[in-house]
Specification:
The protein has about 100 residues and is an alpha+beta fold. It is about 35% helix and about 25% strand. It has a four-stranded antiparallel β-sheet with strand order 1-2-3-4, covered by helices on one side. It is elongated.
């Protein structure tokens, strides 16, 4: 004989089951955090090259599973990349074309 699960329990479990697999294998930084990470990298690169942050352009390239974001920054024709964590700490600045 099959045991029946009460309907209220099923109604509560369905939304949880839908959320369980959401985002597996992909962790995106919320938009506000992504913008803050771009800004942190832009400020670090600007200080590095002796320019005002408004003179550089930063774009979020990717976010790793570890929460580190890779941000590309250009100042004129030069490209720089930074890794920035969720606490907005810039870990490194690289010059990929150098």
């Amino acid at each position: 004989m099959r045991r029946r699960v009460p309907l209220p329990i099923l109604l509560l479990a369905a939304p949880l089951a839908a959320c369980a697999g959401a985002g597996e294998g992909q962790r995106n930084v919320p938009a506000a955090s992504a913008a803050a990470q771009e800004r942190a990298c832009a400020e670090a690169v600007a200080a590095h090259v002796g320019k005002d942050p408004a003179e550089v352009t930063a774009v979020l390239a990717e976010t790793g599973a570890d929460g580190l974001a890779l941000v590309r920054v250009t100042d004129g024709g030069r490209l720089h990349t930074c890794t920035v964590d969720a606490n907005l700490s810039v870990h490194e600045i690289r010059h990929p074309r150098a």
